[in-house]
Amino acid sequence: MNQKLAKTVSLLTNPALVVSISVVTVVGRYADSIEKFWQGSLIGIGLLVVPGMIYSVYVWRKEGAVDLDLTDRHDRIVPLMLSTLGAVIGSFIVQSKLQNPTFTEMSFILVTMLAALTVVTTVWKISLHAATIAGLSSLLVAYQGVWFMLGYLVLVPVIWSRIQLKQHSPNQLIAGTILGAGLTLVAAWFFSHYS
């Protein structure tokens, strides 16, 4: 029962799924037409999630095993690099097309977060689940107010599930949480003051 619940929590908080839902939500907030909503959502997901997924499918087919968590940190590096590149391209698109300062700041924060996670992953396995949830919660706090600190409570089942599934050590989860929350808050402050 615990394993099944842990797998469900882990799947529902998978970084690719969380990022996809976040992209659609943010684009929905700033798009002024249904056409821009669909265009922005598809471009965002296409740049941030799809290239990494295609690479992961390639690796899975090559190795003959499906590992949704990309347990080996080496398998995470290329998808993270592709997502970072997609975020950089997306930032230029956002800046030139939407010309919305808040949306531009958020895209810069995303680039910063993905670049940091990529660099850390080249030398050490960090929890992308914890970093994503902590980063998203911090983004909500920075742009929507302190009531969104309640979002940090989502980290409790996420951390439990990742430990239960033996995907991460407590140190990897703590580091993911600190990096996700701390870097997002610092980047939000920096880009809101200097962009």
Topology:
Elements: H1 2-12, H2 15-30, H3 34-48, H4 50-63, H5 74-97, H6 101-123, H7 128-144, H8 155-164, H9 170-194
Helix pairs in contact: 1-8, 2-3, 2-7, 3-5, 4-5, 5-6, 6-7, 6-9, 7-8, 7-9
Number of domains: 1
Please give the alpha-carbon distance between the first and last residues. 49 Å
Mean pLDDT, nearest integer?
Answer: 90
Specify the structural class.
mainly alpha
How many strand elements?
Answer: 0
Report on this model:
The protein has 195 residues and is an all-alpha fold. The chain has one domain (2-194). Helix content is 79%, strand content 0%. It is built from 9 helices and no strands. It has helices at 2-12, 15-30, 34-48, 50-63, 74-97, 101-123, 128-144, 155-164, 170-194. The radius of gyration is 16 Å and the shape is globular.
Task: Pick out its properties.
mainly alpha, 195 residues, globular, 9 helices
Concise structural overview:
The chain is mostly helical and 195 residues long.
